[in-house]
């Protein structure tokens, strides 16, 4: 699949402060999670991708075209910013209508699209109230609505779940997943890892302006040789299992977990370990309740890469 | 293909038109517009005061047109227009930056220059309506006894034209200031009530480095004579047609520069 | 046990002495001095004080400055109440005060309204009065530096340079006049600025109003005076009212033939209106419909 968004040696300085350093990557259709702590450079990256900032070095391309001041591209891009800012005295409907008129739609289509977007984010009942009277969650939903109302095929969402209650988050997550099935390209940034895990396995990890890793979360985990994989097994005879593991040369350490009847193993070769595990269990006649990989998740990957 | 790519591509003029209509609608609803509209009717209050004063003195005003040109027009040109235009002109860019709504405009398929020009047109229209309504009403109040003759109307239209040119030129200048600096208001105050006020006292070509000089060249003026004449403002007027051309040229140059700066500058919005 | 929680106000007793308004003032001063343009204007506003202080020096060295004395009376070099009244009423100083209020005061309350910070203030154990004092403290700092400090320095340096107490023997009420005039200017300008700052969440708009209202009243006075030639029209102008009060406090003939009592009443009315409006506008919670 050809990349929709491509960056080549992208860097951005704010005076002497490095916001982004030497970022070269390709984003393909689907959902890509942009992860990093606060101040990592996520918003800088997204602003460069949407042409709001000029790169200090490098290029940003959408379908092979440079982004900066390329108004032809902006009709295909929807951007939901992180910060909470609106034209406060207009109503939600007036705000959406204005944004749609700037996209070039005629009045009839503008009205229809605005109503559809308001329905999508469940703000129809409050459409004629001024934005300054909206709650935090309503404002966040309105921001999302203005990003998608013109049906863009590239959607850039900077912390879209901020300020939403759990129900609201679930709804937005479902909406984003629906957009993926329609073949759109979506970049979602967040510093809350479970939110990204709920959306996608394709991630870009960023820290202190540098890209730490890109790709499928599990494949990235496998590539981290410096940190052995941890496997936790809850069974009826943990000590017998632990004794047997000690004979395996790819097992680096064996501990007993805090939970009862749990043995926690560190292995340097996850695939080999899981390949042999069923045979071992059958050989010993051990009854297993649960097998988990506590560090095969985004948090662990991030912690390992950042060096915590 | 998404529906967005099937939306008609707007021409540059159409983009300006869309921006104009949006910000005209937004600005019309603003409480600030209503307050400024009321303030811009101060010339009417002054004119009413003058007429009431004449009633109590039991004599007609000797020269309503002289009071109109010296009093009302000076008040408008040297104070009211400057203050209102300073706010609206700097707001074209700065209100988007301070309110952090800039990205809503710069991530739409409209050229950035169209944003500047569309907002400029909307705010100039506000200012022209506000100020000229006040001038017309003040004129009518002052000339209430001679409205039928029609002799003074050409002068009114002349003054309205000068005020409109003032609005065009100053708004363009402050628009440029607003794109260049976040301290545009302070710089604008120094320019309006410092530079423009002081340099007019300098003789020769120095006066030509102010916008006010060209505006006053289009109005009837009187040079002071006598011992203290060196202390008073002394206009060495530019020919009217040339003054109009310079004002329009300055407007175009300032606007073009503002569009250029706005298109290429990185605006870092505060994240607090 | 799950407690039923809601909003509650601090009702404990304070055991130590506190200046709750001081952190607000300190923060306001820090923010003001962060602006380069403000520092430039602040330095410039000290100019009249420096010039008049030079005048105090020259007044004691008249022999050495004979060229300045040529031609008779030299009002500027006679240190008497008129000298002080001149300092407190010159246009440059008045304008400097307005510009300083614009820079240091426009955003004092406007920025809090813009960022919904009032809730943060009043969630701490401070009262409205502490909030106002804290904000006003920022303005008082700058106003007193330009009013009280120069006035006292003029007196002090005159005493030092002349080596006698002649000035105070001739005008024993002079220090009180300096104090009173400084208080009038400080209280008026601080309340004027805070009033306008509380009316909008847009700092630029407030800046325009601070400058515009002051100039506007003076321009209006000029126009009306040209029409009616009545001294009572001076009551329209903030600057003229302040000049009238200064003339009274320093025992000088007023510029306009209208009683200073009217001027002080007008200034007091503006201050009272300011307090009332501030009290209404500053709330911990705002309901937007």
Walk me through the structure.
The complex is a heterotrimer of chains A (about 300), B (about 270) and C (about 290). By secondary structure, chain A is an alpha/beta fold. Chain A contains eleven helices and 14 strands. Chain A has helices at about 40-50, 70-75, 90-100, 105-120, 135-150, 165-180, 195, 215-225, 240-245, 270-285, 300-305, and strands spanning about 5-15, 15-25, 30-35, 55-60, 65, 75-80, 155-160, 185-190, 200-205, 210-215, 230-235, 250-255, 260-265, 290. In chain A, the strands form three sheets. In chain A, strands 6-7-8-3-9-10 form a six-stranded mixed β-sheet, sandwiched between helices. Chain A has a four-stranded antiparallel β-sheet with strand order 2-1-4-5, with helices on one face. In chain A, strand 7, helix 6 and strand 8 (about 185-190) form a beta-alpha-beta unit. In chain A, helix 3 packs across helix 4 (about 105-120) and helix 4 crosses helix 5 (about 135-150). The two termini of chain A are about 35 Å apart. Chain B is an all-alpha fold. Chain B has a domain at about 10-190. In chain B, about 70% of the residues lie in helices and about 0% in strands. Chain B has ten helices and no strands. Chain B is globular and about 65 Å long. Residues about 225-230 of chain B have low confidence and may be disordered. Chain C has one domain (about 20-280). Chain C has helices at about 20-35, 35-45, 45-60, 65-70, 80-90, 90-115, 120, 130-145, 150-160, 165-170, 175-195, 205-230, 240-250, 260-280. In chain C, helix 8 (about 130-145) packs across helix 11, helix 9 (about 150-160) packs antiparallel against helix 11 and helix 13 (about 240-250) packs across helix 14. The chains are: A alpha/beta (about 300), B mainly alpha (about 270), C mainly alpha (about 290). Chains in contact: A-B, A-C, B-C.
Assign the structural class of chain A, choosing from mainly alpha, mainly beta, alpha/beta, alpha+beta, or little secondary structure.
alpha/beta
Radius of gyration of chain A: 24 Å
**Strand/helix succession of chain B:** HHHHHHHHHH
**Major sheet description of chain B:** none
Layout of secondary structure:
The complex is a heterotrimer of chains A (308), B (272) and C (289).
Chain A: E1 5-14, E2 17-27, E3 30-35, H1 42-49, E4 57-62, E5 65-66, H2 71-74, E6 77-80, H3 92-102, H4 107-120, H5 136-148, E7 154-158, H6 166-181, E8 185-190, H7 193-197, E9 202-207, E10 210-216, H8 217-223, E11 229-235, H9 238-245, E12 251-256, E13 262-267, H10 270-284, E14 288-292, H11 298-306
Parallel strand pairs in A: 3-8, 3-9, 6-7, 7-8
Antiparallel strand pairs in A: 1-2, 1-4, 4-5, 9-10, 11-13, 11-14, 12-13
Chain B: H1 12-28, H2 31-39, H3 42-57, H4 64-99, H5 102-106, H6 112-142, H7 153-180, H8 184-199, H9 211-216, H10 240-264
Helix pairs in contact in B: 1-6, 3-6, 4-6, 4-7, 4-8, 6-7, 6-10, 7-8, 7-10
Chain C: H1 22-34, H2 36-45, H3 47-59, H4 66-69, H5 81-89, H6 91-114, H7 118-122, H8 128-146, H9 148-162, H10 166-170, H11 174-197, H12 203-228, H13 238-249, H14 260-281
Helix pairs in contact in C: 1-8, 2-6, 3-9, 5-13, 6-8, 6-11, 6-12, 8-11, 9-11, 11-12, 11-13, 11-14, 13-14
């Amino acid at each position: 699949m050809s990349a929709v968004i491509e960056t080549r040696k992208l860097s951005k300085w704010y005076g002497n402060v490095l916001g982004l350093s030497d970022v070269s990557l390709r984003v393909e259709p689907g959902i890509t999670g942009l992860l990093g702590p606060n101040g990592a450079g996520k918003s800088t990256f997204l602003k460069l991708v949407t042409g709001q900032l000029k790169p200090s070095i490098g290029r940003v391309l959408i379908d092979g075209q440079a982004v900066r001041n390329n108004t032809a591209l902006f009709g295909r891009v929807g951007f939901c910013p992180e910060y909470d800012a609106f034209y406060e005295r207009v109503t939600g409907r007036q705000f959406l209508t204005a944004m749609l008129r700037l996209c070039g739609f005629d009045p009839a289509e503008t009205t229809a699209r605005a109503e559809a977007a308001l329905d999508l984010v469940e703000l129809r009942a409050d459409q004629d109230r001024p934005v300054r009277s909206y709650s935090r969650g309503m404002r966040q939903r309105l921001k999302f609505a203005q990003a998608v109302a013109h049906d863009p095929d590239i959607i850039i969402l900077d912390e879209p779940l901020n300020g939403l209650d759990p129900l609201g988050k679930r709804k937005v997550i479902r909406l984003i997943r629906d957009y993926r099935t329609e073949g759109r390209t979506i970049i979602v940034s967040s510093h809350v890892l479970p939110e990204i895990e709920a959306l996608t396995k394709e991630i870009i990890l960023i820290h202190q302006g540098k890209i730490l890793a890109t790709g499928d979360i599990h494949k990235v985990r496998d590539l981290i040789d410096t940190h052995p994989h941890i496997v936790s097994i809850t069974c009826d005879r943990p000590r017998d299992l632990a004794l047997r593991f000690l004979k395996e040369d790819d097992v680096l350490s064996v501990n007993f977990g805090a939970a009862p009847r749990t043995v926690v193993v560190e292995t340097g070769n996850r695939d080999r370990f899981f390949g042999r595990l069923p045979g071992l269990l059958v050989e010993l006649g051990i009854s297993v309740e649960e097998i988990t990989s506590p560090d095969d998740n985004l948090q662990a990957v991030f912690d390992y890469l950042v060096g915590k | 293909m998404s529906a967005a790519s099937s939306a008609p591509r707007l021409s540059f003029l159409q983009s300006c038109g869309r921006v104009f209509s949006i910000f005209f609608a937004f600005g019309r609803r603003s409480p600030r517009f209503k307050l400024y509209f009321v303030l811009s009717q101060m010339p009417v209050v002054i004119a009413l005061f003058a007429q009431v004063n004449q009633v109590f003195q039991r004599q007609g005003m000797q020269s309503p047109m002289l009071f109109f040109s010296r009093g009302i027009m000076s008040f408008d040109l040297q104070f009211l227009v400057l203050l209102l235009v300073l706010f609206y002109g700097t707001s074209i860019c700065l209100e988007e930056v301070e309110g952090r709504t800039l990205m809503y405009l710069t991530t739409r398929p409209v050229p950035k220059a169209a944003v500047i020009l569309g907002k400029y047109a909307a705010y100039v229209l506000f200012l022209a309506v506000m100020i000229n309504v006040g001038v017309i009403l003040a004129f009518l109040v002052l000339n209430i006894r001679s409205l039928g003759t029609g002799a003074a109307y050409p002068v009114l239209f002349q003054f309205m034209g000068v005020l409109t040119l003032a609005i065009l030129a100053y708004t363009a200048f402050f628009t440029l200031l607003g794109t260049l600096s976040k301290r545009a208001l302070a710089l604008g105050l120094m320019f309006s009530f410092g530079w423009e006020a002081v340099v007019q006292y300098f003789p020769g070509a120095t006066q030509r480095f102010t916008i006010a000089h060209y505006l006053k060249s289009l109005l009837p003026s009187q040079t002071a004579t006598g011992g203290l004449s060196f202390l008073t403002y002394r206009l060495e007027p530019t020919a009217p047609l040339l003054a109009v051309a310079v004002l329009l040229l300055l407007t175009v140059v300032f606007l073009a520069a503002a569009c250029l700066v706005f298109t290429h500058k990185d605006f870092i919005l505060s994240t607090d | 046990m799950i407690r039923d929680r809601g909003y509650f106000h601090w009702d404990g007793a304070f055991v130590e002495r506190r200046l709750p308004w001081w952190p607000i003032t300190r923060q306001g001063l820090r923010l003001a001095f962060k602006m380069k343009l403000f520092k430039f204007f602040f330095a410039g506003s000290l100019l009249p004080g420096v010039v008049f202080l030079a005048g105090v020096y020259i007044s004691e060295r008249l022999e050495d400055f004979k060229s300045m004395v040529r031609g008779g009376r030299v009002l500027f070099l006679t240190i008497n109440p008129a000298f002080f009244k001149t300092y407190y009423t010159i246009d440059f100083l008045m304008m400097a005060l307005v510009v300083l209020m614009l820079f240091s005061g426009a955003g004092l309350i406007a920025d809090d309204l813009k960022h919904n910070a009032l809730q943060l203030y009043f969630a701490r154990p401070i009262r409205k009065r502490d909030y106002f004092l804290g904000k006003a403290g920022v303005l008082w700092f700058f106003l007193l530096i330009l009013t009280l400090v120069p006035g006292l320095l003029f007196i002090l340096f005159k005493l030092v340079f002349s080596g006698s107490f002649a000035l105070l023997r001739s005008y024993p009420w002079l220090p009180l006049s300096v104090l009173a005039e400084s208080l009038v200017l400080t209280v008026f300008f601080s309340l004027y600025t805070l009033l306008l700052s509380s009316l909008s969440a847009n700092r630029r708009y407030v800046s325009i109003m601070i400058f515009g209202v002051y100039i506007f009243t003076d321009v209006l006075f000029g126009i009306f005076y040209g029409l009616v030639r009545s001294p009572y029209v001076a009551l329209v102008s903030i600057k003229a009212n302040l000049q009238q009060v200064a003339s009274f406090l320093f025992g000088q003939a007023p510029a306009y033939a209208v009683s200073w009592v009217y001027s002080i009443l007008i200034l007091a009315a503006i201050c009272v209106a300011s307090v009332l409006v501030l009290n209404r506008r500053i709330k911990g919670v705002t309901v937007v419909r």
